[in-house]
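Late entry, written up from scratch paper. The run itself happened at the end of the previous shift, but nothing got recorded in the book at the time, so transcribing now.
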Amino acid sequence: MITIKANTLDRGVPSWEAVRRCVREFEAGLPRLARLARYYEGRHDILARTRLPGLPNVRISHAWPRYIAQVSAAYLLGEPVRLEGPEPAAASLRDLLNHAGADSIDMELALQQAVFGRAVSLCYENAAGQPCACAPDPRSAFVVYDDTVAHEALFGVYLNPDRRFTVYTARDILTWPHPGGAPEKSLHPFGTLPMAEYLNGRDVHGDFEDVLALVDAYDLLQADRMNDRAQFSDALLVLTGVMGVTAEPGDSLSALERLRQEKTLALPDEHARAEWLVKTPQERDIEVLRAALAEDIHKFSLTPDFSDERFAGNASGIAIKYKLFNFDNRIRVKERFFITGLRERARAFCGWLKARRGIALDADRLIFTLSRRLPLNELERAQTLSALREVLPRETLAFNSPLLPAPDLPGKAVGEEQASV
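Output as recorded:
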């Protein structure tokens, strides 16, 4: 999080020097973001490994970062975000978000949050005068906050490909045609800062960032395993008690060539020996180490291994929830920060509604609901409903029945995880 003193702004407008200082601080962290992006794309450090000429150099990267990031992002947004608020203004806001493609943008934001530890959304008005939203690369956009405990957002910065920057404030869009000169200003219709950040917790770490060393160890172990296999076929022939291998008089083939073709070797006496010098891999020990590394990656990234037999289809719903307990807690932390970003984006759309259509809607009164689907034990669910048939109303039983489609009633079904803020 980049912070500056709020009193350095002139009526909410930062100076070129202040923005440049923030950009330099942001650029100092770009190597870390580049490494996270590289690992997510599968370009691990093992791919740059070199060995002596003549030695096999198998380089294998495993898609652990992609697995971890995609699993957490998909679990966070198992269903599109549901927005509720005072009607009919909330319906107008939902219509704007639908036309802006908010569902796909939200998924992109969730993935960026998982990879980089932060995501950024930017609202803008297109040529047709309609509000739009996008998810710029977190390596080219950031928000600057004040240095108080409240950390109020002051302005947002977008770095253009030519490394010039565009600054967004609560009122203006600023560009500097000449470094250090006066900025060019243009008003935007959102009435608030149109850029919002979606942090991945206060530490702003990516979901797989803390296990990169374990991923490197896993890559190295598997690569060396393959190298050992390749070297096994390049074994050396050791001759004991033999001073040299020579051809018989009049033989047109050398002894080594005859050995290669006929697979036979004549030794001088009974004390001489010929044997292959090979490296015997300890496969059992290697497999134990591989499994331990894989388990540690799942453990310390708090990401469950869904291929584990403990997630068998006959496991009860509550048993699966216990296995997902730590993972679910991590997602709930991500969720709180994600909803904060969604509210700030909605605040910008509410400002557009008021400025362009005269519709007043308080973003603080909006309710955002993130739903996640978990595997259900339908037999267990039916037995629970049967036990409650004398207690619950018939409508509630029908709403939660696994055999009937859920009617459009308020509330939630048994086993459906929701979070509303």
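Confidence is low (pLDDT under 50) at residues 406-417.
(Scratch paper discarded after transcription.)
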